[in-house]
Design goal:
Length: 103
């Protein structure tokens, strides 16, 4: 796996320059990114890719594909999750606007 840093917030690039000697344009290997076996990685696909499928809608359901890895145990979990769209929206309403499910 290869990666590069991509600061997203205002001031993040300045903090990166002050605290590390990493060039944000440099492509980094896994060994450069992670120096310990005590690491946990999680990703969920948004669009279809080589490793993960993206978000797909099937009638009243939405399906997500995720990958979880743990360095210490070398365990990799592929998770296929399906949600009822109405439940997602009713939960968001409750969290964001204080409304009860179905309200």
């Amino acid at each position: 796996m290869l990666d590069r840093l991509a600061p997203q917030r205002d001031g993040a690039l300045a903090v990166l320059h002050e605290t590390t000697d990493v060039d944000p344009a440099q492509v980094l290997t896994v060994d450069q990114l992670v120096k310990s076996k005590r690491v946990f990685f999680a990703a969920t696909g948004v669009t279809d890719g080589a490793v993960l499928k993206g978000v797909h809608y099937h009638g009243d359901r939405v399906r997500f594909h995720s990958l979880i890895m743990r360095g210490e145990t070398h365990i990799r979990r592929m998770i296929d999750t399906e949600h009822l769209i109405e439940f997602i929206f009713s939960t968001l309403k409750q969290v964001c606007f204080g409304q009860r499910h179905g309200g």
